[in-house]
Task: inverse folding
C-alpha cells in the first residue's frame, strides 16, 4: 500500500515511539525482526513510500498497526493485530489464513 510523505512520517513516529517505549535500540529492533538495520532506521524516520513487508514485520513485533491513522479504528487495529499474530511470515501461511478468513465469511453469509 502506497502512503504519502506525511503518512509515512506519522507511521515512522508511531513505530519509533513504540520502540522507545519497549526500551529497544534500533539495532535490537533490527535483530528481533530480521529486518536490515538500514531499513529499520529509514522506516523509523518515515523514509518509505510503501507499507512493505518490513514495515509490517516491525509493526507486528511492536504490536502496533502500520496503517495510516485515517484508515484505523479500534476494531480495525484489533483485527490487524489478531491476524498478524497468527501469521508465521510465509507465503503459504498467508494463503492458509486468507482461505480461513474466506471460510469464516462464507459461514457468516450463509454461503
Result:
Amino acid at each position: 500500500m502506497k502512503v504519502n510523505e506525511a503518512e509515512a512520517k506519522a507511521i515512522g513516529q508511531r513505530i519509533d515511539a513504540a520502540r522507545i517505549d519497549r526500551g529497544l535500540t534500533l539495532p535490537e529492533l533490527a535483530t528481533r525482526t530480521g529486518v536490515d538495520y538500514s531499513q529499520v532506521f529509514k522506516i523509523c524516520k518515515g523514509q518509505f513510500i510503501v507499507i512493505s513487508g518490513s514495515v509490517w514485520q516491525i509493526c507486528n513485533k511492536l504490536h502496533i498497526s502500520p496503517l495510516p491513522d485515517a484508515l484505523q479504528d479500534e476494531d480495525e487495529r484489533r483485527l490487524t493485530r489478531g491476524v498478524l499474530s497468527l501469521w508465521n511470515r510465509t507465503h503459504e501461511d498467508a494463503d492458509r489464513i486468507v482461505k480461513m478468513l474466506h471460510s469464516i465469511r462464507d459461514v457468516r453469509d450463509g454461503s
